[in-house]
Every structure is written in C-alpha cells, then in structure tokens.
Specification:
Blueprint (H helix, E strand, L loop, with lengths): L16 H44 L12 H13 L1 H20 L12
C-alpha cells in the first residue's frame, strides 16, 4: 500500500484511460495533419502549373484534338481542367472529414478505437 505524498513533494502522475486516449488522439491528429500538409504540397504544385497552362492554352486557342462524340474539344478540355483544379480542395475536405469523425469519437467517454468503417 502506497503512502500519500505531501502536497509540495513532486510525484508521479497517475495515468488513467482518459490520458491514454488523449495521447493517442493527439498523436493521430499530428500524423494526419503532417500527411495533409505534405500531400497538399505534392498535389497543389502540379495543379497550379496545369491551371496556368490551361489559361495560356485558352488564350492562344491551343486545344488537344481529342474529343468525345457530341462534345467539342474546348468544352471537354475546360471541364477536365476544372476537375483537376478542384483536386486540392477535395483532398483537404477528405482529411477534415476524417479528423472531425475521429474527434467526435474521442470526445465520448467510451473506449477510443479506429474502426475500418470510418
């Protein structure tokens, strides 16, 4: 049986399940934000270059000759460029939704677990 420590004496901090859960979620958030920043950097640079190329190609009337039946090449080219330009936002949204889902589950008083279905 351990004797109680006096108030001023430094002692060990009692580690409980809540502390472990907070530590785990903090590590998870740090890892996900690190991955988000590196993925956004890797994805955004080519998207910026591609979007600049698209703007210059529209100004100079340079379009690829490929098209789909019933769709003119300019419309197809601009639509593909728009979808590619939105990819950094989609990546950011997916990471934020994952972080929100984990933070909702970690605020509950139950045991924290990463289910495959999240």
């Amino acid at each position: 049986m351990a004797l109680p420590r006096p108030e001023g004496e430094p002692g060990r901090h009692q580690v409980g399940p809540a502390d472990g859960r907070e530590y785990f979620t903090t590590l998870y958030f740090k890892r996900e934000l690190r991955n988000l920043s590196s993925n956004l950097l890797v994805l955004s640079l080519p998207v910026i270059v591609f979007t600049s190329y698209v703007l210059l190609a529209i100004d100079a009337n340079l379009f690829p000759g490929t098209s789909l039946p019933g769709i003119e090449p300019r419309l197809l080219y601009v639509n593909v460029a728009f979808v590619i330009a939105l990819s950094p936002y989609v990546l950011l949204s997916s990471y934020m939704l994952r972080i929100v889902a984990v933070s909702k589950h970690s605020l509950e008083s139950t045991v924290f677990s990463l289910d495959e279905g999240l």
